[in-house]
Amino acid sequence: MKFAVKSLLVASLALTSAQALSHSHESALTQAVQSSERDAKNSARDKYRHPVETLEFFGFKPNMTVVEIAPGGGWYSEILAPAVKGHGVYYAAHFPADSEVGYYQRSLAGFKKKMSDDARFSEVKLTEFAPVTHLDIAPAGSADLVLTFRNVHNWYMGKDKEGALSAFKAFYKALKPGGTLGVVEHRLPEARSDEDQKSSGYMKQSYVIEIAKQAGFELVASSDINANPLDTADHPKGVWTLPPRLALDEKDAAKYKAIGESDRMTLKFKKPL
Fold first, then answer.
1. Which of 17, 25, 90, 104 is surrounded by the most beta carbons within 10 Å?
2. CA pair distance 268, 182, nearest whole angstrom
3. Sign of CA pseudo-dihedral 222, 132, 215, 144
4. pLDDT, tens digit (0-9, with 9 covering 90-100), for 13-34
């Protein structure tokens, strides 16, 4: 009887500990998203990007080693960096320092300024990423979670399949066995021509899955968290016609604002054990 009671007590304590840990994970993420320190323009886009739901779908926990690919101005970094700070490790695999593209240099400089001026970014580890040429995003086999948001079309448009495949192979190398790759990307309807992927900014979900599998990944799950049925993906200036870019400026702006941001696939892959 004493053994049974002791076993029940141990099990109860383990369950309570697990629940507390899960709650702390949720709290760190929710606090980062709800923080008043976030840029108001960034927060306004949560209704399109669903950061809490998306990161939870990918299995994010603050004590993980997380790599974000091409963080740009830091929309997701503003959530990930403070959520991981003091608990895990966050790598920002930004544009290369030797890039010849002016936009890349400006974006990188802006991100470095955040790292030096903003306490939320004080523990960020900066690495470099560019398809084919800069692939050491984190030490090999060190990452629990690699994340890429709306980037695959850039690699494909720039360097075709070679660019996209090299990127996924870099993610595979950085991840631990059993680690997770989370992908969010603008979604092109499957009935459309593959050629549309070269200029529209949209990618077919089947194509992205195939590239990931060629790199060695297994598809775990897909989600419509970031789906937008109002987006027909056939706009005059591709995905950039929609918010936040609004490439047509004021022309039909109300129409495209009513559609909102693009329809997006949300895919969860794993590196096999």
1. 90
2. 5
3. negative
4. 455 544 444 445 568 899 999 9
Nearest to 208 by CA among 124, 268, 133, 129: 268
Q: Single out the residue of 143, 120, 122 nearest to residue 69, CA to CA.
A: 143
pLDDT digits (tens, 9 = 90+) for 176-197: 999 999 999 999 999 999 999 9
Q: Contact 146/137 with Cβ under 8 angstroms?
A: yes
**CB-neighbour burial class of residue 28 (10 A; exposed 0-12, middle 13-18, buried 19+):** buried
Q: Which residues contact 74 (CB under 8 A, 6 or more apart)?
A: 81, 110, 111, 114, 121
- The length of the chain in residues reads 273
Element (H, E) at 7: helix 2-34
Residue 203 has pLDDT above 50, yes or no: yes
Q: Report pLDDT for 18.
A: 46
8 A C-beta contact, residue 92 and residue 114: no
Token pair listed for 187 = 């979604």
* CB 57 within 8 Å of CB 268: yes
* Structure tokens belonging to residue 201: 């900014």
Q: What is the DSSP letter of 134?
A: B
Q: Which two tokens stand for residue 171?
A: 């993610």
- Residues in Cβ contact with 27 at an 8 Å cutoff, skipping those fewer than 6 apart: none
